[in-house]
Amino acid sequence: MAFWPKSRKLKDRPSVCNPDASPYAVFDRVGLSVGKEHILQDLTLQLAEDRIGIIGLNGSGKSSLVRLLNGLRTPTSGDLTLFGAPSAEAELELPRHVGFVFQNPDHQAIFPTVEEEIAFGLTQLGAGKEESRSRARAFLALHGCEGLAGKPITELSGGQKQLVCILAVLVMEPRLLVLDEPMASLDALTTVRIRQKILSLPQKIVLVSHDLSQFDGFDRLLWLEDGRLRMDGAPDAVRAAFQEDVVSRQGMDVEVAEL
Ligand SMILES: Nc1ncnc2c1ncn2[C@@H]1O[C@H](COP(=O)(O)OP(=O)(O)OP(=O)(O)O)[C@@H](O)[C@H]1O
């Protein structure tokens, strides 16, 4: 299912976002706290590149950061501008511009069949039920998945489910596709296939992954640590620094363990 915060259809709302805004996201001292816990702190950055990756250790704030991009999270300090509008104003419109794919397709897919799953986003954009179903079938055929249209989602493999979830957001033609560890539970061949599909897309991409090889060919890599931006730059440089840091921490762990 395409993430959708309210049932009202977007066609009824005047637009505040500019889908062509560049950068599409501007963070100005953005913070996110829950209770006394500071999940993200003092993030100042602009996102404009076609392919941006995000890395960091468990709990560093990657998922929280990307959830700010589609309104699943709201900053508790600082200013966030999305597609040219303050995030609070852009929030209800974001599902049109930002497709979000979760790690676990079972958290995303909710309709009985593949065709219904794909058609849902089109109905939310204002298309009629029959038109949505017919466009969904055509879209599946366009991506070589016509055989899946009538299948129950529960009977798909993990890789097929993930592909359906990606197609369910792509059918809405978002400007930005955010993928939060989409390949985490897939085998090597399916990972390569889905990665190729993702890289062939015209959409701007933000990808969160623990697998550093996923960022080959990316324009930029962000490294988060304890909710702060530790490094931001070319993927090769950021990956090398991150790996060096991980190795040095392992050394420290060994020294502690030997005490
Ligand atoms: N709803 C919440 N309430 C309180 N703390 C939260 C909440 N959501 C996340 N956190 C905390 O925020 C921090 C960052 O979590 P987040 O899921 O963004 O990290 P992550 O880098 O994506 O981690 P991982 O690599 O394990 O998926 C963690 O310490 C987490 O416990």
TrEMBL record:
Native source organism of the sequence: Roseibium aggregatum
Broad class of enzyme this protein falls into: hydrolase
Domain ABC transporter, first and last residues per copy: 25-251
Protein name: Biotin transport ATP-binding protein BioM
Record-linked InterPro entries: AAA+_ATPase, ABC_transporter-like_ATP-bd, ABC_transporter-like_CS, ABC_transpr_CbiO/EcfA_su, ECF_ABC_transporter_ATP-bd, P-loop_NTPase
Sorted UniProt keywords: ATP-binding, Hydrolase, Nucleotide-binding, Transport
Gene Ontology cellular-component annotations: ATP-binding cassette (ABC) transporter complex
UniProt key word Heme: no
EC assignment: 3.6.3.-
Gene field: bioM
Gene3D superfamilies per UniProt: P-loop containing nucleotide triphosphate hydrolases
Signal sequence segment: none
SUPFAM superfamilies: P-loop containing nucleoside triphosphate hydrolases
One GO MF term: ATP binding
Stored CDD domains: ABC_cobalt_CbiO_domain1
Record PROSITE patterns: ABC_TRANSPORTER_1, ABC_TRANSPORTER_2
Family label: Belongs to the ABC transporter superfamily.
